[in-house]
Amino acid sequence: MLATTQRFIERLAFLTVLLGGLGLLISMFLGMGDVVGSLFDNPLPGALEVTESTMVLIVFGGLAYAQIRQRHLRVELAYLKAGPKMRSVMDIIASLSGVTFFCLMVWQGFNEALFSYTISEATSGLVRFPLYPARFALVLGASLLVVQLVFDLVRDIVNFGVDKDFELG
């Protein structure tokens, strides 16, 4: 059951990375079109608003996948000098801190997303772009990260003190 859930979370995290990549492509082309259009006194309306919303998907879409691949930043100097038990303690503290922080973010993000949806919040520009999809994308990305951090926390507790083959890069 746990392995099946882990695979599902990994697939969902990969999907959010793909959506973030698509958002990055859209932002890139809109930005390029806006710059070129500005050269001819005809900027793309709504380019800024769409780019702002896709940035949330780009950032929060990749958090869980980066955690799955263990690609988040850490202070390697201190981590590599520590023994296996101290590394386990560091990993557990990092996971607990991440779970706490991102649970709070999910909680408040969901409240904001729901409120944004309820009042039909939109950008104030030439093109009114709804803000609630980006807010729900934040909640989805942060929720996936919380689930992955819980999996990592359980793994770190079960494997406490076991020396991991740690590689840089």
Describe this protein's structure.
This protein is mainly α. It has one domain. The protein is built from six helices and no strands. Helix 2 packs parallel to helix 6. The mean pLDDT is 90.
Brief characterization of the structure:
This protein has 169 residues and is an all-alpha fold.
Mean pLDDT: 90
Number of strands: 0
Helix/strand/pairing class, anyone?
Answer: mainly alpha
- Give me the number of helical elements: 6
List keywords for this structure.
0% strand, mainly alpha, 169 residues, 6 helices
What topology does this entry show?
Elements: H1 2-39, H2 47-61, H3 63-68, H4 76-81, H5 84-118, H6 132-158
